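Final report, Chapter 2: Outcomes

The project's central promise was a pipeline that accepts a single protein chain and returns its three-dimensional structure in a standardized token representation, suitable for archiving and comparison. That pipeline is now operational. To close this chapter, we reproduce one record exactly as it appears in the project archive, with the input sequence first and the structure output second.
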Amino acid sequence: MERFKARSASDDPAFQARQAELIAIAEARTTRLAERKAAKAAEIARVEAERKAAEEAAAAEARARAIEERAAQKAARDAAYAARKARKVK
């Protein structure tokens, strides 16, 4: 019993130093984990923003193509109408 009492002194400077070191290691680990989570969240947000921008650009391009196609169809209709008109006038 005497050996146990002599060994378990929590006021021992070596014990306190080791405890402080373990606490510092645990805090550093927690900080690194939080930094990794923040970096991962930022990366996910960046990738999502890039994907959304790419989708919006593709949608805008598709709308522009559709407008061009409609304009070409209208020009073809107008040309056909003008040709019919020209044939009737003669």
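Archive annotation: The mean pLDDT is 91.
This record, like all others produced under the grant, will remain available to the consortium after the project formally closes.
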